[in-house]
Design a protein that fits this description.
The protein has about 325 residues and is an alpha+beta fold. It is built from 5 helices and 16 strands. About 45% of the residues are buried. The mean pLDDT is about 95. Bound molecules: fe (ii) ion.
Amino acid sequence: MSLITGYHHLTLSTDGVQEDYDFYTKTLGLHSVKRTVLFDGVVPVYHLYYGARNGDASTIITTFPFKKPAIYGRRGSNQSKIVQQAIPVGSCDFWVNRLNERGIAATKISRFGADRVSFKHPCGIPHELVENPGDARPSIVNEAQGIGAEHGIKGIYGAAVSVMDRAAMDDFLTIALPMTKIADTHEGLVFSVPNAGGPTSVLEVLHEPGVPQGTWTLAGGTIHHLALNTGDEANQLKLRAHIEGLGFTDISEQKDRMYFKSCYVRSPGGALFEIAWTVPGGWAKDEPADAIGTTLVFPPWFADRQAEMEAGLEPASF
Ligand SMILES: [Fe+2]
């Protein structure tokens, strides 16, 4: 039995907060699930969470908009490259038209036999909406934005990682996490993320040996990490011990992320992975369950910094 049940969230560093919020909530029709700040370091930066209205972990995309501190990174190899979300089979054309109408260049492509819409976040990070016949989750409906059940995003499909050395990443994914390799072609590798009974989700590995190394720091314009769901603490600690025992002693101690608890490990293929589980109460720990994502909230340990951080955040209207 696997210790992983699908993805928990995907996290990106982006550019302007307003364009980021509008892109995910208005263009893609996701809902705001939490609005807080980056818990690490000293620079005040928003941490915005988007997904299904109820905050189902398998739907969550999170962003750190870095425009105000003007910290930008370089996209490249040995780094996560593409954010992938699942859409209903047959809905690619709807999304190509919708994105193009809004001035976002979008084209229908196919990779590893899956039709998908390829486009970019305003900060430049590649995104794909992938038609996934193996996903029975309901669509994220957003009537206010004109997105109904037949077209709405279902949640995370996966991510593509760019690597210089496909063998090192292959070893990590199959031994450390572990995932199951389901394709090995001229396009790269595809791994299936364990998810008993849930939607199929994947990790795609793109072999790009000629592309310079991308930034690993928290820096605008780059994907920071991919979080997998362990469901509970026991599974997380078992998986953490397994990974550490393989020699990946740089896996972090458990960190308190308020709504979930996380450990982080750098893969030899460059992508940063997180293993996380949602704590009891989840998103409703600091907002009413039927109004999550509607206010700016700070964790209790930032009580003494709240005023300073609020003053330092980039203005935006939510
Ligand atoms: Fe995370």
